[in-house]
Amino acid sequence: MPQYKQFPLPDTAEGLTEAEILTWHVKPGDTVTVNQIIVEIETAKAAVELPCPWAGVVTELLAEPGQTVEVGVPIITIDTDPGGAAAPVAPAPVAAEANGTSSGKIGEEMPGGRIATLVGYGPKSGAAKRRARKDAPAVAKAAVAAITPAAVVAPPAPAPVAAPAPAPVQAPGGYVPLAKPPVRKLAKDLGVDLYALTGSGPDGVITREDVESAGSAPAAAPVQSFVDNGSRERRVPIKGVRKATAQAMVDSAFTAPHVTEFLTVDVTPMMELRAKLKNAREFHGVKLTPLAFCAKAVILAARRTPDVNATWDAAANEIVYKDYVHLGIAAATPRGLVVPKVRDADRMSLKELAVALDELATVARDGKTSPADMMNGTITITNVGVFGVDTGTPILNPGESAILALGAIRDMPWVVDGEIKIRKICQLALSFDHRVVDGQQGSQFLADVGALLAEPGIAMTY
Amino acid sequence: MSSPEQWTHPEPDAAPAATAAKPTAEQVIAGLRATDEGGADLVQLLTPEGERVTHPDFDIDITAEELRGLYRDMVLIRRVDREANALQRKGQLGIWVPLLGQEAAQIGAGRAMRETDMAFPSYREHGIAWTRGINPTELLGIFRGTDQGTWDPVEKRFHPYTIVIGNQVLNAAGYAMGQKFDGKVGDDEGEATMCFFGDGATSQGDVHEGFVWAAVYDAPLVFFCQNNQWAISEPTERQSRLPLYQRARGYGFPGIRVDGNDVLATLAVTKWALDECRHGNGPILIEAFTYRMDAHTTSDDPTRYRLSDELEMWKLKDPIERVKVYLVRQQWADHEFFESVEADADKLGEELREFCTNMPDPPAERIFSNVYAEGNPNLEAQRDEFLGYVSGFAGGEH
């Protein structure tokens, strides 16, 4: 019976955390021997060849050339007993039980399916490294458990799951206060932040006296004006939402040729309609925002220009037109930008849209938007107006072909029937993927949205 | 050995200034030539082609059995080296320091030592360790970070590996001075010490100090420098204006350059040097002219700083192949012998893999043990505090 073993990517050079797969020298079905070179990887230090730890038959390659793999993540599955008599052992599922206090013995499997590479080297399993103290409160333990899966997440990671708020960390390798170890100890004991001190010793070394005087001084008297920049900078690890956002934006900006068009609209009639509806019984208790009108307008206009609701599928060499609208709403949250979707927004009435948008915003601000909620959008609105901003050039959500920025609605002088009047003015900016959407369709769509906002009655004609 | 008249003065512009960022093409070629040729003073008894040659000052009587033994040593230690290198690549060792290419230098020097002689290694001396009767598995803990080397340095007459470059030269000089003070030097029953370091270490102050002290105290110390041409990425010609063995002259003791890929020459020269030392004529510097065929360590990428031409040239001077050719030509070994050595090597490799993957984590108190020979109340207090702290964690010690 087959016995499957998985070979985790080792740290080949003292403290590396990841490596890129360059070339596989074996393929599934190949018979391999101990120490046979199976793969070439490139680390930050060198390109190295990895020997096979076991003899057997290659079952599966778990990483592709060009893929960057974290140290400790399995890269190949080998059947070490093909056709043997031993009882079958299933390959370790990558997302195994999350809890456990495995110490990370070499070769031993740990929570999350990772196999420990080496004590003292490479990333550690969170559970093993951050053991809770026996008397620690349960909350701390729960927090530790929550961190664990994120630390061992497999490479093609979906959107991050409930990443903890990144704690500010001191600059690694940057400005470090100069102080002798006993002085550091004293500062630690007295609760004095060495980063906030200016050393009076030679070459700015922080002395025992410096720490003592700071320790006895009133807390709110740090010598801020002389402090090095390093102490006024805060370094936050790029991870979670920030990392996902950055990756998505860079991917999008470098794959989809963006075109952005702008339109300034007199939305006074829309605002008047909004005022009327607010008093209507049907809309009682509903938070009817300009965004809801804008969403409705986008959905209606997309019906006439389906290109903006389509996807460029480079792999299949096809453009995918969609008969549904999953409307993404870019939301600013404490965790960063998230884009939750209103599913099948095209089937919703204005009221249903308004309710859905309100719920979406609440969930997002509470940081409870699930990764599933952020997947598979078809078109996006970003409401920069809530920040009092007039307009911007939005970047497409990857996989989508259009994004509309809704600017702030302001009282502005506007020419109406040859006279200057004060009207509610708003700017719209539409970015679209020029591979899918031509200037004509893009302009048509933007003009339609503008017209619907400028005169909601136009919707009657759709 | 060499007189000042024989000194080879470096030709102007032959070597790049140490401050030069990049050598010129001419300098690279000059450097290649310099590493290719050991020079006229190179002691060689077995050519890369496996031809036995003579030398006016050094020769050796070797039996078929002895030479087969040297061959076996070299093949086995090469296998140990390759296996450990592979273990590092499998994530089983934090780092490994390959000796590939330096087998003859180490086996020749190691087999020249008597049991009573003392050795001070750096960190690449796996072959020396082998000749001191240390099981190669005992080296693995050092590179896995579980121990500092488990052999008894007094019993094995082999000091623990020294990671700090050149530091062991001071230790060795002091030890050899002690041998002299203890009256263990003076006749054929005398003791000697051998100190191992590389070409890079010769740029260290410690090595200079060791030379000075050993010289003025006539210490019975053989300085065994394995010049493998590269101090990590720094070639020898950027570290010295004259061949390294000639430096000995300045300190007032003999310096000899031997073909470090020739196990017979290395054995002959080292035996002679150790005998000189045990009779009271030390110290002596031996420069074993060899080549590091692999990276400095597993964390290093030599393709970034040296040309593959150089490697190809040194492949032709393989220390093991020449012995094999000679054994066959002399009909001192048959097919069966070579097969049995291969089988032994395979078995040793398997032992190493087995041992390494099953190596237990050391207990937490291990870092406190063996610091002082007779204990120390301060350290014991620290130990107790630390063990108390560790046991406070859920799951206990691991």
Automatic annotation (TrEMBL), chain A:
Known cofactor(s): (R)-lipoate
Domain Lipoyl-binding: start-end pairs: 4-79
CDD domains, per database record: lipoyl_domain
Gene Ontology terms, MF aspect: acetyltransferase activity; lipoic acid binding
Family: Belongs to the 2-oxoacid dehydrogenase family.
A Pfam family the protein falls into: E3_binding
Gene3D superfamilies noted in UniProt: 2.40.50.100, Chloramphenicol acetyltransferase-like domain, E3-binding domain
Name of the protein in its database record: Dihydrolipoamide acetyltransferase component of pyruvate dehydrogenase complex
Gene Ontology CC terms: cytoplasm
Keyword terms of this UniProt record: Acyltransferase, Lipoyl, Transferase
EC nos: 2.3.1.-
Domain Peripheral subunit-binding (PSBD): 178-215
